[in-house]
Amino acid sequence: MKNSSKKKKLKPLIKKIVPVKKKAEYEVSLAIAGGGCKALYGMAIGYKLRKWGVQLKEISGVSAGAAMALGILSETEDESIEYFTELTKRNNSNFQVMSLFQGKSPFPHENIYRRLIRHGMNLEKVRKSKVKIYIGTVQAIPKKSGINHYWDIAKLVTETTRAYLLDENDKERGIPCNRVSKIMERWNMQSIIYTNKDLKSPEIVESIILNSSSIPPVVSFQNNSKVYFLDGGLTNNLLLEKFSKKSKKIGIYYEDTTIFGKDRALLESTFLIKPSRKLPISSFDYTDPVAVKECYEMGKEDVEKLKPEILKFCRKD
């Protein structure tokens, strides 16, 4: 008698191998101060941290520091430097007289800066990073029409610039000062912080960075349909205060005036990094490609010397 029961075919068990994502051993919140070309130094440090495997939980930037921060999240640091180097090779002057006769700004900085931002920005990668972002600017005055309003703008820029320079001079000598804060109170200005939710498109991101970098006449008085903006460094050039209290923080700055007057406990709990020697470039020199690269490489060199200390500081508890 034949056995009518059919033998069940045994299906081979295929185990799907799912790669296990290695958890970061180091993490930190990174703040990059503004300072024009000097901020290239800060981007170099961010690049090194990323290459070492340090996970960024939060990042903040003011003025050019904001552009560098988003460049780090876009992972375009080296190619941005190469691009900026090429742009500065083609620019032979920081003040172009012929532009005046053409009804244009004699300062080439804003056009070059915009091109650098567009080249180095990868908004999709920024969003995928899930890093909390903070960009500081100053909301100046409501946008209106009429001759009187333009007179107000000119007066505001003049008064603010003078107050800022006098405050910086006092800070260098260790003297408390409040001229800028008084100007802000008089003109009803206020500090504004942009976060991830504001980064809706590459065009908006570009506007946000320019708002944070507005230093007339080098970078024009930025505005939208409602208000004007000024450089965020007027009130706080190193946004450490926005980070979560428990986070380990690294702050990159270039002059001691940047941290003058900040909360002492905050500074003592932050790993502060400043250039080991004078940077080879000034804030608004867009004519020296050699100095651009030297500034960037100096950031890499300085932070490499601090690598053991930094990794020990950033190690997860």
Structural account:
There is one protein chain. Mean pLDDT is 92; it is low at 1-7. The relative contact order is 0.20. Strand 1 (26-32), helix 1 and strand 2 form a beta-alpha-beta unit. Strands 1, 2, 3, 4, 5, 6 and 7 form a seven-stranded mixed beta sheet that branches. Helix 1 runs parallel beside helix 2, helix 1 packs across helix 11 (289-305) and helix 3 runs antiparallel to helix 5 (109-120). With 317 residues, the protein is of the alpha/beta class. The protein is globular, with a radius of gyration of 24 Å. Helix content is 43%, strand content 14%. The termini are far apart. It is built from twelve helices and seven strands.
Strand-pairing-aware structural class: alpha/beta
As a percent range, the share of strand residues is 5-15%
Helix proportion: 40-55%
Which residues form runs of ≥5 with pLDDT under 50?
1-7
State mean pLDDT (0 to 100 scale). 92
The general outline is: globular
The tally of strands reads: 7
Q: C-alpha Rg, in Å?
A: 24 Å
| Tally of contiguous helical segments | 12
Straight-line N-to-C gap: 72 Å
Largest sheet: 7 strands, mixed
Order of helices and strands: EHEHHHHHEHHEHEEHEHH
Give a quick summary of the entry.
With 317 residues, this protein is an alpha/beta fold. It has twelve helices and seven strands.
